[in-house]
Amino acid sequence: MGRTKRPRLDKRRYREPSFDTAGSVAAEFALLAPMILVITVGTVDFGLLSTNISALAGATRIGAEYGRLHPSDPAGIESSMQNSMSFNPPLSFPATFPLSCECDDGRSIPCTVSCATAGRPGPNRVFIRISANQAAAPILPWPGFPTTLTAATQLRLQ
Residue 3 falls within a domain, yes or no? Predict the structure, then answer.
């Protein structure tokens, strides 16, 4: 078998570029650093928002458990929620925690009337709605980012 000759590379075609590349890394960093910073701060803001929402939901569940035992004590419900975690800024609450009632058929009824006297099946089911709000302060102002976080829990008392 005969050997085939490989073509020779012309070294003049494959020269090093003649322009200077000094400072290109600094220029690329200057272009990418703001985007990386915004993505990082956005991730931190989203994480803080998620943490605060979870804490607020947990506090409303704690308030609901207190409300199950003491439904006519709104100050105690607020205190149990506020003291459940160290909220900064503090939680704000509605003026009252509303009660609602319904019968076994699922239709609402005034809590002062019993289902039996209204001719509906079953005993009254009494519900209390526990809610709380907390101001949200992101690191950067984002469009569509909530300024107030709200959580609510509805609990059957009877």
Answer: no
